[in-house]
Design goal:
It comes from Blautia aquisgranensis. InterPro entries: DUF2961. Keywords: Hydrolase. Helix content is 6%, strand content 44%. It has 369 residues and is mainly beta. The strands form 5 sheets. Strands 3, 5, 6, 11, 13, 15, 20, 21, 22, 23 and 27 form an 11-stranded mixed beta sheet that branches. Strands 1, 2, 4, 7, 8, 9, 10 and 12 form an 8-stranded antiparallel beta sheet that branches. Strands 14-24-16-17 form a 4-stranded antiparallel beta sheet, with no helix packed on it. The longest helix is centred in the first third of the chain and has 5 residues, at 2-6.
Length: 369
Protein backbone atom coordinates (compact mmCIF):
# COMPACT_ATOMS: atom_id res chain seq x y z
CA UNK A 1 0.00 0.00 0.00
CA UNK A 2 3.00 2.33 -0.02
CA UNK A 3 2.16 3.49 -3.55
CA UNK A 4 -1.21 4.65 -2.28
CA UNK A 5 0.58 6.72 0.35
CA UNK A 6 3.12 8.29 -2.02
CA UNK A 7 0.73 8.86 -4.89
CA UNK A 8 2.87 7.15 -7.55
CA UNK A 9 1.39 6.16 -10.89
CA UNK A 10 0.95 2.56 -9.79
CA UNK A 11 -1.35 3.61 -6.97
CA UNK A 12 -3.02 6.65 -8.49
CA UNK A 13 -6.46 4.99 -8.62
CA UNK A 14 -6.42 4.04 -4.95
CA UNK A 15 -8.14 6.32 -2.45
CA UNK A 16 -5.87 8.87 -0.78
CA UNK A 17 -6.09 9.75 2.89
CA UNK A 18 -4.03 12.92 2.93
CA UNK A 19 -5.03 16.55 3.37
CA UNK A 20 -3.55 18.61 0.54
CA UNK A 21 -1.90 21.90 1.41
CA UNK A 22 0.42 24.42 -0.27
CA UNK A 23 2.72 27.13 1.04
CA UNK A 24 3.74 30.18 -0.98
CA UNK A 25 4.09 33.92 -0.50
CA UNK A 26 0.30 34.36 -0.52
CA UNK A 27 -0.36 31.62 2.03
CA UNK A 28 2.89 31.36 4.03
CA UNK A 29 1.48 28.90 6.57
CA UNK A 30 -0.48 26.68 4.20
CA UNK A 31 -3.73 27.37 6.02
CA UNK A 32 -6.97 25.81 4.83
CA UNK A 33 -9.23 28.26 3.01
CA UNK A 34 -6.72 31.12 3.18
CA UNK A 35 -5.00 30.90 -0.20
CA UNK A 36 -4.70 33.96 -2.44
CA UNK A 37 -6.18 36.42 0.05
CA UNK A 38 -3.79 39.30 -0.61
CA UNK A 39 -5.15 42.21 -2.66
CA UNK A 40 -3.51 44.01 -5.58
CA UNK A 41 -4.55 47.02 -7.68
CA UNK A 42 -6.84 44.57 -9.47
CA UNK A 43 -8.71 43.99 -6.25
CA UNK A 44 -8.91 41.32 -3.50
CA UNK A 45 -7.45 37.91 -4.28
CA UNK A 46 -5.84 39.10 -7.55
CA UNK A 47 -2.10 38.30 -7.24
CA UNK A 48 -1.54 40.57 -4.28
CA UNK A 49 1.58 38.80 -2.98
CA UNK A 50 3.05 36.48 -5.61
CA UNK A 51 6.62 36.44 -4.27
CA UNK A 52 9.01 37.33 -1.47
CA UNK A 53 10.40 40.80 -2.16
CA UNK A 54 13.79 42.37 -1.41
CA UNK A 55 15.45 39.58 0.57
CA UNK A 56 18.35 41.39 2.24
CA UNK A 57 21.98 40.21 2.00
CA UNK A 58 22.72 37.90 4.92
CA UNK A 59 19.04 37.24 5.61
CA UNK A 60 17.70 33.74 6.29
CA UNK A 61 14.03 33.45 5.40
CA UNK A 62 11.75 30.53 6.20
CA UNK A 63 10.08 29.41 3.00
CA UNK A 64 7.94 26.75 4.64
CA UNK A 65 7.33 25.32 8.09
CA UNK A 66 4.68 22.75 8.89
CA UNK A 67 3.72 20.28 11.59
CA UNK A 68 3.53 16.58 10.77
CA UNK A 69 2.91 13.86 10.06
CA UNK A 70 3.14 14.79 6.41
CA UNK A 71 5.08 14.66 3.17
CA UNK A 72 6.34 17.33 0.79
CA UNK A 73 5.52 16.17 -2.74
CA UNK A 74 6.64 19.04 -4.97
CA UNK A 75 8.71 22.21 -4.73
CA UNK A 76 8.66 24.93 -7.40
CA UNK A 77 11.00 27.94 -7.35
CA UNK A 78 12.08 30.66 -9.72
CA UNK A 79 14.41 33.63 -9.26
CA UNK A 80 16.59 35.83 -11.46
CA UNK A 81 20.16 34.66 -12.05
CA UNK A 82 21.83 38.04 -11.45
CA UNK A 83 21.14 41.35 -9.74
CA UNK A 84 23.69 43.48 -11.63
CA UNK A 85 26.10 42.84 -14.48
CA UNK A 86 28.85 42.26 -11.88
CA UNK A 87 26.76 40.13 -9.52
CA UNK A 88 25.76 37.21 -11.68
CA UNK A 89 26.09 34.12 -9.48
CA UNK A 90 22.75 34.27 -7.66
CA UNK A 91 22.18 30.53 -8.12
CA UNK A 92 25.40 29.75 -6.23
CA UNK A 93 24.93 32.56 -3.66
CA UNK A 94 21.49 31.43 -2.47
CA UNK A 95 21.59 28.43 -0.10
CA UNK A 96 18.61 26.14 0.45
CA UNK A 97 18.36 24.08 3.65
CA UNK A 98 15.81 21.59 4.96
CA UNK A 99 15.26 20.33 8.50
CA UNK A 100 13.22 17.34 9.65
CA UNK A 101 11.53 16.70 12.98
CA UNK A 102 13.53 17.93 15.99
CA UNK A 103 16.97 18.11 14.35
CA UNK A 104 18.85 21.40 14.63
CA UNK A 105 21.25 20.78 11.73
CA UNK A 106 20.01 20.60 8.14
CA UNK A 107 19.47 17.35 6.28
CA UNK A 108 19.62 19.30 3.01
CA UNK A 109 22.20 22.01 2.34
CA UNK A 110 23.12 23.16 -1.15
CA UNK A 111 23.45 26.20 -3.38
CA UNK A 112 20.03 26.64 -4.91
CA UNK A 113 20.99 26.01 -8.53
CA UNK A 114 23.04 22.89 -7.87
CA UNK A 115 20.22 21.28 -5.89
CA UNK A 116 18.16 21.48 -9.09
CA UNK A 117 21.03 20.15 -11.28
CA UNK A 118 22.06 23.61 -12.47
CA UNK A 119 25.65 24.21 -11.38
CA UNK A 120 28.07 26.99 -12.29
CA UNK A 121 25.55 29.68 -11.29
CA UNK A 122 23.62 29.03 -14.52
CA UNK A 123 20.35 27.45 -15.43
CA UNK A 124 19.90 24.74 -18.04
CA UNK A 125 17.03 22.61 -19.32
CA UNK A 126 16.61 19.48 -17.15
CA UNK A 127 13.99 16.84 -17.95
CA UNK A 128 14.05 13.98 -15.44
CA UNK A 129 11.63 12.21 -13.10
CA UNK A 130 12.53 13.86 -9.76
CA UNK A 131 14.01 17.16 -11.04
CA UNK A 132 12.79 19.31 -13.92
CA UNK A 133 14.06 22.75 -14.92
CA UNK A 134 12.13 24.41 -17.71
CA UNK A 135 12.45 27.83 -19.34
CA UNK A 136 13.39 30.03 -17.79
CA UNK A 137 14.67 28.91 -14.36
CA UNK A 138 11.49 27.06 -13.47
CA UNK A 139 13.01 24.80 -10.79
CA UNK A 140 10.90 21.75 -9.89
CA UNK A 141 11.64 18.94 -7.42
CA UNK A 142 9.46 15.84 -6.97
CA UNK A 143 11.50 13.88 -4.41
CA UNK A 144 9.07 12.73 -1.68
CA UNK A 145 10.08 14.31 1.61
CA UNK A 146 8.21 12.75 4.55
CA UNK A 147 8.34 14.08 8.10
CA UNK A 148 6.74 12.78 11.29
CA UNK A 149 6.84 15.84 13.55
CA UNK A 150 7.94 18.91 11.64
CA UNK A 151 9.48 20.16 8.40
CA UNK A 152 11.23 23.46 7.72
CA UNK A 153 12.75 24.87 4.51
CA UNK A 154 14.92 27.98 4.65
CA UNK A 155 16.74 30.16 2.14
CA UNK A 156 19.87 32.15 2.99
CA UNK A 157 20.85 35.09 0.82
CA UNK A 158 24.66 35.18 0.68
CA UNK A 159 24.51 37.37 -2.43
CA UNK A 160 25.96 40.87 -2.38
CA UNK A 161 22.61 42.52 -3.10
CA UNK A 162 18.94 42.21 -2.28
CA UNK A 163 17.00 39.53 -4.12
CA UNK A 164 14.20 41.63 -5.64
CA UNK A 165 11.72 38.80 -6.19
CA UNK A 166 11.75 35.14 -5.10
CA UNK A 167 8.82 33.01 -6.27
CA UNK A 168 8.08 29.59 -4.79
CA UNK A 169 5.47 27.02 -3.83
CA UNK A 170 5.73 23.94 -1.60
CA UNK A 171 3.01 21.34 -2.17
CA UNK A 172 2.48 18.79 0.61
CA UNK A 173 -0.01 16.47 2.28
CA UNK A 174 -0.79 15.96 5.95
CA UNK A 175 -1.56 12.46 7.24
CA UNK A 176 -2.80 10.88 10.43
CA UNK A 177 0.29 8.66 10.43
CA UNK A 178 3.22 7.59 8.23
CA UNK A 179 4.55 4.08 7.59
CA UNK A 180 6.78 2.92 10.44
CA UNK A 181 9.80 2.34 8.20
CA UNK A 182 9.83 5.76 6.55
CA UNK A 183 13.24 7.27 5.74
CA UNK A 184 14.14 10.96 5.50
CA UNK A 185 15.39 12.85 2.44
CA UNK A 186 18.95 14.23 2.51
CA UNK A 187 21.12 16.17 0.06
CA UNK A 188 24.62 17.64 0.45
CA UNK A 189 26.75 19.84 -1.83
CA UNK A 190 30.55 19.59 -1.95
CA UNK A 191 33.38 20.93 -4.06
CA UNK A 192 37.11 20.57 -4.60
CA UNK A 193 38.37 23.48 -6.68
CA UNK A 194 41.45 21.39 -7.51
CA UNK A 195 41.30 17.67 -6.92
CA UNK A 196 44.35 15.88 -5.55
CA UNK A 197 46.16 13.69 -8.06
CA UNK A 198 45.62 9.92 -7.46
CA UNK A 199 43.11 10.67 -4.65
CA UNK A 200 39.44 10.02 -5.39
CA UNK A 201 37.01 12.92 -5.05
CA UNK A 202 34.59 12.36 -2.17
CA UNK A 203 30.93 12.87 -3.07
CA UNK A 204 29.63 11.69 0.31
CA UNK A 205 31.02 10.31 3.55
CA UNK A 206 30.25 10.25 7.25
CA UNK A 207 26.78 8.81 6.70
CA UNK A 208 25.64 6.68 9.64
CA UNK A 209 22.38 4.77 9.89
CA UNK A 210 20.15 2.74 7.58
CA UNK A 211 19.18 4.13 4.22
CA UNK A 212 19.54 4.17 0.46
CA UNK A 213 21.46 6.42 -1.92
CA UNK A 214 19.26 7.71 -4.73
CA UNK A 215 21.16 10.23 -6.84
CA UNK A 216 24.20 12.23 -7.89
CA UNK A 217 24.58 15.61 -9.56
CA UNK A 218 28.08 16.50 -10.71
CA UNK A 219 29.34 19.86 -11.99
CA UNK A 220 32.73 19.20 -13.59
CA UNK A 221 35.10 21.93 -14.74
CA UNK A 222 37.93 20.29 -16.66
CA UNK A 223 41.36 21.85 -16.13
CA UNK A 224 43.46 19.52 -18.29
CA UNK A 225 43.35 18.54 -21.93
CA UNK A 226 42.18 15.25 -23.48
CA UNK A 227 39.31 13.00 -22.47
CA UNK A 228 38.33 13.29 -18.81
CA UNK A 229 35.71 10.59 -18.22
CA UNK A 230 37.53 7.38 -17.19
CA UNK A 231 37.24 7.78 -13.40
CA UNK A 232 35.27 5.04 -11.65
CA UNK A 233 32.35 5.64 -9.27
CA UNK A 234 32.72 3.77 -5.97
CA UNK A 235 30.25 2.91 -3.18
CA UNK A 236 31.77 1.84 0.15
CA UNK A 237 28.96 0.10 2.00
CA UNK A 238 28.68 -1.01 5.67
CA UNK A 239 32.29 -1.10 6.79
CA UNK A 240 34.11 -1.24 3.43
CA UNK A 241 37.57 0.26 3.86
CA UNK A 242 40.25 -0.12 1.19
CA UNK A 243 37.97 -1.49 -1.53
CA UNK A 244 34.28 -0.73 -2.25
CA UNK A 245 31.46 -3.19 -2.72
CA UNK A 246 30.35 -1.41 -5.92
CA UNK A 247 32.84 0.03 -8.40
CA UNK A 248 31.74 1.22 -11.82
CA UNK A 249 33.59 1.29 -15.12
CA UNK A 250 33.97 5.03 -15.72
CA UNK A 251 32.41 8.47 -15.31
CA UNK A 252 30.64 8.54 -18.68
CA UNK A 253 29.36 5.01 -17.99
CA UNK A 254 27.95 5.96 -14.58
CA UNK A 255 25.94 8.76 -16.19
CA UNK A 256 24.67 6.32 -18.81
CA UNK A 257 26.68 7.45 -21.83
CA UNK A 258 29.34 5.84 -23.98
CA UNK A 259 32.17 6.57 -26.40
CA UNK A 260 32.80 10.08 -25.05
CA UNK A 261 29.22 11.23 -25.81
CA UNK A 262 30.71 12.01 -29.19
CA UNK A 263 29.54 12.63 -32.72
CA UNK A 264 31.40 14.12 -35.66
CA UNK A 265 30.43 17.52 -37.02
CA UNK A 266 32.51 18.92 -39.90
CA UNK A 267 35.37 16.64 -38.95
CA UNK A 268 35.40 17.69 -35.30
CA UNK A 269 34.30 15.72 -32.24
CA UNK A 270 31.26 17.27 -30.53
CA UNK A 271 29.84 16.02 -27.23
CA UNK A 272 26.09 15.40 -27.18
CA UNK A 273 23.86 16.58 -24.33
CA UNK A 274 20.84 14.54 -23.29
CA UNK A 275 18.03 14.33 -20.74
CA UNK A 276 16.32 11.07 -19.78
CA UNK A 277 14.06 10.13 -16.83
CA UNK A 278 16.92 8.71 -14.74
CA UNK A 279 20.19 10.09 -16.12
CA UNK A 280 21.41 12.99 -18.18
CA UNK A 281 24.12 15.34 -19.40
CA UNK A 282 22.09 18.55 -19.64
CA UNK A 283 24.82 21.19 -19.70
CA UNK A 284 28.03 21.92 -21.55
CA UNK A 285 29.71 25.26 -22.14
CA UNK A 286 33.18 26.74 -22.55
CA UNK A 287 31.87 30.30 -22.65
CA UNK A 288 30.52 32.88 -20.24
CA UNK A 289 26.90 32.85 -21.38
CA UNK A 290 25.56 34.94 -18.52
CA UNK A 291 27.56 38.13 -18.87
CA UNK A 292 30.11 39.31 -21.40
CA UNK A 293 32.39 42.30 -20.84
CA UNK A 294 33.34 43.74 -24.22
CA UNK A 295 36.88 44.41 -22.98
CA UNK A 296 37.45 40.67 -22.48
CA UNK A 297 36.67 37.49 -24.38
CA UNK A 298 34.07 35.06 -23.05
CA UNK A 299 36.26 31.95 -22.80
CA UNK A 300 35.85 29.70 -19.73
CA UNK A 301 37.27 26.32 -18.76
CA UNK A 302 34.88 23.68 -20.15
CA UNK A 303 31.92 23.13 -17.80
CA UNK A 304 29.79 19.97 -17.80
CA UNK A 305 26.77 19.07 -15.68
CA UNK A 306 25.44 15.51 -15.15
CA UNK A 307 22.73 13.77 -13.12
CA UNK A 308 22.11 10.11 -12.27
CA UNK A 309 19.05 8.98 -10.32
CA UNK A 310 19.09 5.59 -8.58
CA UNK A 311 15.31 5.37 -8.44
CA UNK A 312 15.19 1.90 -9.98
CA UNK A 313 18.54 0.81 -8.53
CA UNK A 314 18.99 2.42 -5.08
CA UNK A 315 22.26 1.77 -3.26
CA UNK A 316 21.11 0.27 0.05
CA UNK A 317 23.12 0.41 3.27
CA UNK A 318 22.44 -0.78 6.81
CA UNK A 319 25.10 1.08 8.83
CA UNK A 320 27.20 3.52 6.80
CA UNK A 321 28.02 4.76 3.29
CA UNK A 322 30.85 6.53 1.48
CA UNK A 323 30.75 7.55 -2.20
CA UNK A 324 33.76 8.63 -4.30
CA UNK A 325 34.75 9.13 -7.93
CA UNK A 326 38.19 9.05 -9.55
CA UNK A 327 39.71 11.72 -11.76
CA UNK A 328 41.24 9.67 -14.59
CA UNK A 329 41.62 10.67 -18.23
CA UNK A 330 42.94 9.14 -21.40
CA UNK A 331 45.03 10.63 -24.19
CA UNK A 332 47.42 9.54 -26.90
CA UNK A 333 49.69 7.89 -24.31
CA UNK A 334 46.85 6.07 -22.56
CA UNK A 335 45.30 6.51 -19.11
CA UNK A 336 46.58 9.27 -16.82
CA UNK A 337 45.72 10.81 -13.45
CA UNK A 338 44.02 14.21 -13.69
CA UNK A 339 43.34 17.24 -11.53
CA UNK A 340 40.05 19.01 -12.19
CA UNK A 341 37.47 21.18 -10.43
CA UNK A 342 34.59 19.01 -9.19
CA UNK A 343 31.39 19.99 -7.40
CA UNK A 344 28.56 17.61 -6.55
CA UNK A 345 25.27 17.06 -4.80
CA UNK A 346 24.59 13.68 -3.19
CA UNK A 347 20.95 12.68 -2.63
CA UNK A 348 19.92 9.91 -0.23
CA UNK A 349 17.34 8.73 2.30
CA UNK A 350 18.21 7.56 5.79
CA UNK A 351 16.97 7.17 9.35
CA UNK A 352 17.45 9.96 11.86
CA UNK A 353 19.53 11.29 13.48
CA UNK A 354 21.95 12.16 10.70
CA UNK A 355 25.61 13.12 11.02
CA UNK A 356 26.03 16.92 10.76
CA UNK A 357 27.56 18.10 7.49
CA UNK A 358 30.96 19.72 7.10
CA UNK A 359 30.78 23.55 6.88
CA UNK A 360 29.64 24.93 3.54
CA UNK A 361 32.27 26.76 1.48
CA UNK A 362 32.17 30.54 1.38
CA UNK A 363 30.25 32.00 -1.54
CA UNK A 364 33.47 33.18 -3.20
CA UNK A 365 34.84 29.63 -3.14
CA UNK A 366 31.55 28.35 -4.60
CA UNK A 367 31.69 30.67 -7.59
CA UNK A 368 32.49 29.05 -10.94
CA UNK A 369 35.83 29.61 -12.58
Amino acid sequence: MYQAFTGGLGGIALAKNGKSRAINAENPHGEKGRGGMAASHLGPSRKGSPCLKDIEPGAVVTLAEMEGPGQINHIWITVDNKTTEADCFVLRDLVIRMYWDDEETPSVESPLGDFFCCGFGRECFVNSVPVAVVPNRGFNCYFPMPFKKKAKITLENQHANKIPAFFYQVDYCLYDELPDDIAYFHAQWRRERLTEKTKDYTILDGVKGKGHYIGTYMALTTLERYWWGEGEMKFYIDGDEEYPTICGTGTEDYFGGSWSFAKQVDGKTVEQNYNTPYLGYPYYSAHDELIHNFYHNDDCPPMRGFYRWHLQDPICFEEDLRVTIQQIGVGYRGLFERQDDVASVAYWYQTLPHTPFQPLMSKEDRWPR
